[in-house]
Amino acid sequence: MNPKIIFQKIICNSKDIQGQRAVACGWLFNLTGKRVKHSKSGRPIIGRTMDVSISHKNNLAYIGIAPRPYRIGVDVEHIKNDINTELFLKWVITKKETLFLRTFCKKGRLSLSSGIAVFWSVKEAFFKCLDYDLKPGKISILNISKNNRIKINYSDEIKRLMRKKKLKFCFARTIFNKKHIYSEAIMRMVALKKLSTDRYSKQKI
């Protein structure tokens, strides 16, 4: 297997979650020769030399694989215009990112619900990479560049957690069209002595 980070979209014949998981696990087995197991937190595992993340929505599965010491998180979402924007603005969007969300939607000619869905997807991928409960209010998306790279600001809780897990944020990216959003986050395990608190403030990538 080529020791590079791999992202793969798979169209599943089944809209059933179990069927989608079976397709994703079958693809991983064909690629790596290893069967997927799961940690206590539900994170997929395919051995000690690789990290894997799986997401599925409707008839789509999205898979990410990274060689150790990298950690990976992916998410796929279906864009819907009928979500409760008022509820999601309160729960998903922080005060720090409100202004950028409006600008992002205006520049991209996106509805507010579509913009929120993009932010949600990025945060899903981030917390899956971190292997931690989804807490969308604990990180803020401050910018999404032309090449889809994302600038993220972390709360003190997330900074401490990343230090505890010895993780350094590498990058996050999101790609979307009128129907779907694909988001990715990559971190790297590093020696604790190499980490410093200021690296976890506003990361520009």
Describe, in plain words, how this protein is organized in 3D.
It is a single chain. This protein has 205 residues and is α+β, with helices and mostly antiparallel strands. The chain is 32% helix and 32% strand. Helix 3 (95-108) packs across helix 4.
Name the helicity range: 25-40%
* Spatial strand sequence of the major β-sheet: 1-5-4
Order of helices and strands: EHEEEEEHHHEEHEE
* Number of distinct helices: 5
β-sheet strand percentage: 25-35%
Largest sheet: 3 strands, antiparallel
Helix-and-strand structural type: alpha+beta
Average pLDDT level: 87
Count of extended strands: 10
Report the end-to-end length measured between terminal Cα atoms.
28 Å
Enumerate the spans where pLDDT stays under 50 for 5 or more consecutive residues.
192-205
Regarding quaternary structure, how should these chains be classified?
Answer: single chain
Q: From the alpha-carbon coordinates, what is the Rg to the nearest angstrom? A: 17 Å
- What overall form do the CA principal axes indicate? globular
